[in-house]
Design goal:
The chain is about 25% helix and about 30% strand. The chain starts with a helix and ends with a strand. The chain is of the alpha/beta class. The chain has a 6-stranded mixed β-sheet with strand order 2-3-4-1-5-6, with helices on one face. Helix 1 packs across helix 2. It has one domain: P-loop containing nucleotide triphosphate hydrolases (Rossmann fold), CATH 3.40.50. The protein contains 4 helices and 6 strands; from the N terminus they run αβαββααβββ.
């Protein structure tokens, strides 16, 4: 997956500015975090962007305000997310980039952009972007 391709996909995602909730779906190693890093770079995040696997959420500062990066891979129940207060982030009006969102689907805002990434081999990826209107 070339950097040009990742940057292009990141730009496409950001062109859907009405969507503050972005869900990243794909198998382990498909490039979810790499794509999130590219998005953050495009909006001026200077912090080190890394998957918050153990912390659940990382907050980055950008030109557009706070950006929240979630990783729910290790989450075992919806209650864990609720106890961590994640709903406040989702309804803050700030950009929320969410890896492994399946466990928390019931508490996500209806308006969302879903980015599905499929590894097709030879370092190639297929990307599918859908909105809640088309899901």
């Amino acid at each position: 997956m070339g950097l040009d391709e990742v940057s292009s996909i990141a730009e496409t995602i950001l062109s859907n500015a009405d969507y503050k909730i972005c869900l990243f779906k794909g198998e382990m190693g498909t490039g979810k975090t790499t794509l999130i890093k590219a998005i953050c770079e495009l909006i001026g995040v200077r912090d080190n962007v890394a998957s918050p696997t153990f912390a659940l959420v990382n907050e980055y500062l950008s030109k557009q305000g706070p950006v929240y990066h979630f990783d729910f891979y290790r989450l075992t129940s919806l209650e864990e997310a609720l106890d961590a207060g994640v709903e406040e982030y989702f309804y803050s009006g700030n950009l929320c980039l969410i890896e492994w969102p399946e466990v928390i689907d019931d508490i996500l805002p209806a308006k969302r952009l879903v980015i599905e990434i499929e590894n097709t081999g030879n370092d190639q990826r297929n990307y599918k972007l859908t909105t809640n209107e088309s899901v």
